[in-house]
Amino acid sequence: MTEGLLPDLHFDDDDQCYKTDDELGVEDLVASMDRPLSATYQLTRECNLRCTYCSEPPGISSSSLDQHKEKIDKLVGMRRIILSGGEPMDSPYFWEILEYVQRKFELIVLSTNATRIGREEALRLKSMVDYVDVTVDGPRRQHNRIRGQYDAVVDGLMHLRLARIPLSVICVYMPEEKLDGSNLLKTPRPGNRDVIHYICQQGDMLGAKKVKILTPIPKGRSAGFFEDFATGPELEELADFLTAEKKKNGWKVRIVISDWMKIGQGHAWLIEPDGRVIASPVWDQANCLERIGDLSDQSSAELWRRYPYKQQHLAKYLERTLIVR
């Protein structure tokens, strides 16, 4: 593993986040960085589900196996790589890439819908990933209306649990669309705001380290969601409600809520399947994306120097701009 110039941070396995032992502010910590702490690497945009809020729908061509390897080599020195999609396990190169990233990064994370994970896949993943992120958007009825295949997702989660792979459960928090009656043929967009606490119960039952609650990013299939965007006060109210539920029910799972306005713009370093490096979300840009460059012909250090959201990036992954309960 090539060492990168990064501040003295350690990853807390129980809290599933990076921490620092000193009291330096984010600005001082960023000054000692020559590359990102974490990158989300999209293997493919193909997916076997059609989530109503998907911000990363199909439409971008993927790289060849050798091209993926060349780009991944340029990321070496970062602490964490998150293999994502689309659905990363739909990539024909998934297992080869997962094998390739071994020992190149301090942490290897899989972000998946879990529908491709059976007993054999879970046992194979156990020695290859540090933890897995899986999205569940409600109890069966709500989840199936929003993304589908609830039973397959739960089966995958159970296989991960039985294999004792550390797990985070993600939920995208969204309202049910209220129609004004002017279009009787339109089916209202489904929501899950009234059942969000069931996800915390499920995460606790599965032994998840975290339940991470997000709001939609208004791009892709979520492009028209700004009018229903959850406000900061609403998310704080949600946090208070879930804190009371956690105490009442004895949940051990950490509850972490992302308020994009508090986190600020561009915190995520997103590498698209064709190699473009994107800062996301950036509200005043088309599709909430700001292109930083391309790993095909630039180094991660060059791209980091051009990246204007360094403090937002580090603060988010230290959980300093998240609502944590």
UniProtKB/TrEMBL annotation:
* Annotated keywords: 4Fe-4S, Iron, Iron-sulfur, Metal-binding, Oxidoreductase, S-adenosyl-L-methionine
Identify the residues that the record assigns to the Radical SAM core domain, covering every copy: 33-262
InterPro entries recorded: Aldolase_TIM, Elp3/MiaA/NifB-like_rSAM, MoaA_NifB_PqqE_Fe-S-bd_CS, Radical_SAM_PqqE_MftC-like, rSAM, rSAM_sf
Does the record's keyword annotation contain Metal-binding? yes
Q: Its Gene Ontology molecular function terms?
A: 4 iron, 4 sulfur cluster binding; metal ion binding; oxidoreductase activity
Recorded hits in SMART domains, A to Z, give: Elp3
Cofactor entry: [4Fe-4S] cluster
The superkingdom of the source organism is Bacteria
A single GO BP term for this record reads: molybdopterin cofactor biosynthetic process
* Gene3D superfamilies, per the entry: Aldolase class I (3.20.20.70)
Query: Which PANTHER family does the entry link to?
Result: PQQA PEPTIDE CYCLASE (PTHR11228:SF7), RADICAL SAM DOMAIN PROTEIN (PTHR11228)
Output this protein's name: MoaA/NifB/PqqE/SkfB family radical SAM enzyme
